[in-house]
User: Which sequence fits this backbone?
């Protein structure tokens, strides 16, 4: 992706209050877009995404086991992105693009565009400790493809 056509997508997510935690709610025109948005909502809770620049890329690939379902897919998706933030290279994206997505087989390949998190540059929001299955919902039968996830903060 060249710098000339690098455009950040509209935000299609919100934060809902939850006792001692926060619930992420994302939506999109497709389930693929909702997956992109739910990941960006998590990062948006951790820092101001508008302070993040496109300086490097990080790739992510997930393949579910046969016995795993859509909720496992969302969990692994967010957990893998959280790991990229919490461990070397401490990556924070300003944009995530899913390059290959198949919900029926649990396959996803994506690219994050961003940079290394730097407290001198990026305001520290709330630390996300973990992704939870608590009240996790995926409504792929709706035109908005809503995803709800509670994160442990």
Assistant:
């Amino acid at each position: 992706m060249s710098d000339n056509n690098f455009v950040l997508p509209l935000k299609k997510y919100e934060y809902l209050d939850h006792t001692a935690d926060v619930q992420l709610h994302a939506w999109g025109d497709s389930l693929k877009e909702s997956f992109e948005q739910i990941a960006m909502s998590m990062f948006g809770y951790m820092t101001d995404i508008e302070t993040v620049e496109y300086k490097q890329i990080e790739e992510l690939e997930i393949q579910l086991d046969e016995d795993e379902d859509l909720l496992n897919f969302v969990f692994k998706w967010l957990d893998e992105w959280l790991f990229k933030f919490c461990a070397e290279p401490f990556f924070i994206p300003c944009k995530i693009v899913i390059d290959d997505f198949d919900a029926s087989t649990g396959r996803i390949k994506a690219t994050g565009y961003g940079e290394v998190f730097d407290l001198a540059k990026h305001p520290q929001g709330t630390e996300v400790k973990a992704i939870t299955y608590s009240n996790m919902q995926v409504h792929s039968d709706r035109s908005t493809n809503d995803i709800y996830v509670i994160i442990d903060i």
Summary: The beta strands are 13-18, 21-26, 56-63, 91-102, 107-116, 130-131, 137-139, 146-152.
